[in-house]
Design brief:
single chain; 153 residues; mainly alpha
């Protein structure tokens, strides 16, 4: 936060005029895209995988795994810089709200409780499961990704 006034002088609060829900939508998309690509690269590029494999190396899945990261992965985690910049630019409340929603989703995706199982096993819920797994990470999608990458590492 101390660097932004030097890099972007006069930009503090520049987007404060943006309505909350527009800010929420913009941040949700920007945050999701940066996290998706950052995370995907760490699964596909071998030298980046070294910094991310800590997260996927536990013999079990649980909510604590959401924050089990290598320090290098954490330092360069794109959301830290994106959200800090957006707060500086005046989108603090939408950032806070998106961060809260994402925290709940992240915790739920790393849960050892398979709360999403009915969406894959109950016939009339399967369409909801199909949509849900394309919008958020669930235990099933995260566990599948974990098994696939760990086996090929």
């Amino acid at each position: 936060m101390l660097l932004l006034p030097k890099l972007l002088p006069g930009a503090k609060g520049a987007f404060a005029w943006v309505p909350f829900w527009w800010g929420f939508a913009i941040i949700a998309v920007a945050d999701d895209l940066t996290q998706y690509w950052y995370h995907r690269l760490h699964h596909q590029v071998p030298w980046l995988w070294r910094f991310h494999r800590t997260h996927h190396s536990a013999p079990y899945m649980g909510m604590a795994m959401a924050s089990r990261q290598n320090i290098i992965y954490t330092i360069f985690f794109s959301q830290i810089y994106l959200t800090t910049t957006l707060v500086y630019l005046g989108l603090g409340y939408p950032v806070l709200f998106v961060t809260g929603v994402k925290s709940l989703i992240t915790t739920a995706a790393h849960s050892s409780i398979k709360w999403d199982k009915p969406f894959y096993t109950v016939k009339w819920l399967k369409p909801i499961g199909w949509v849900m797994e394309r919008l958020i990470s669930t235990p099933a999608t995260h566990h599948a990704l974990m098994r696939t990458r760990v086996m090929t590492a």
